[in-house]
Amino acid sequence: MYVLGVETSCDETSVSIVKDGKDVLSNVVLSQIDIHKEYGGVVPEIASREHVKGITYVFDKAMNDAGLRYEDIDLIAVTKGPGLIGSLLIGVNAAKVISLSFNIPIIGIHHIAGHIYANHIDNGMEFPLLALVVSGGHTELILMKEHYDFNKLGETQDDAVGEAYDKIARVLGLPYPGGPIVDKKAAHGKDNLHFPRPMIDSGDFNFSFSGLKSHVINVHHNMKQRQEEINVEDFCASFQEAVTDVLVAKTIMAKEKFKVKQIIVAGGVAANSGLRSKMKESIQDIPVYFPKMAYCTDNAAMIAAAGYFQYIRNNKKADDLMLNGQSRLNLEG
């Protein structure tokens, strides 16, 4: 089955063709990072305009790269949410045009389901498994007992981990996007500021990063007021150690309780080298998988992979052309 995936939930315009949920024939991604750097974050109106400018190009290139025609496509899978509503609508409406023009079934995909299924492309899935979703908008622990069965065990009560990274980076004077730069700086610093590990002993699977973020900002502010030397690498290392300690501890607690066979990490923060190394060092009794770097950030290959399994699980039931974008959307249905 050839699935054409479409992803425009934020500031990447992406189209991909994936065979049988695993074999990536093409994956074209237009990033807007350089445009939004000037503003220190994604500007929704600008993101929407850039999607309009790039959407035709990515469709054409994805089809050419795969060596297929639209008549060869069996299914269109498009991100319907959550995300920036203006951005989502560009992808959804473009996908509906192709669906209508070539009479191809279409389904809407949850963005986080896509991130989870990015792992299937190279690693496969063995159930029951535990998915740690870490991105700019999400921090969640999800139990899966079979394909497309999502049971949310816990989530952030305030800031997502990726959001906290970007805010700390801004305070430290680092450019956008801040997460990857904090990660690189942390590799050269020491955890000598001993920041708190929020909710690490709470006994549940929820997270909280707002208080940690405020604490780091206050320490930085007070040191500046006292005109003390600020070692950016040590700030980054201390922050990253606190965050990854919490993420790993909660994951281990869930692993033990639910006796899972596999752990997968999904979302943009899955690219974080500190999290990758700590997770693999701390958990050695079962496999811990991360997507390839190309599939950590937003891309359409993950949407196509998720679409294949959603379509099969739902007995090949497609959506109609009333399909629309949704800025908020529950993963569990």
Protein model, in words:
This protein is α/β, with parallel strands linked by helices and 333 residues long. It has 2 domains: 132 residues, Nucleotidyltransferase, domain 5 (2-Layer Sandwich), CATH 3.30.420; 160 residues, ATPase, nucleotide binding domain (Nucleotidyltransferase, domain 5). The protein is 45% helix and 18% strand. A 5-stranded mixed β-sheet has the order 3-2-1-4-5, with helices on both faces. Strands 8-7-6-9-10 form a 5-stranded mixed β-sheet, with helices on both faces. Strand 4, helix 3 and strand 5 form a beta-alpha-beta unit. The longest helix has 27 residues. It is globular, with a radius of gyration of 20 Å. The chain starts with a strand and ends in a 20-residue tail after the last helix. 49% of the residues are buried.
Give the structure's gist in a few sentences.
With 333 residues, the chain is of the alpha/beta class. It has helices at residues 33-36, 44-66, 85-102, 111-123, 161-171, 178-186, 210-225, 232-258, 273-282, 293-296, 300-313; strands spanning 2-7, 12-19, 23-31, 75-81, 106-110, 129-134, 139-144, 151-155, 262-266, 288-289.
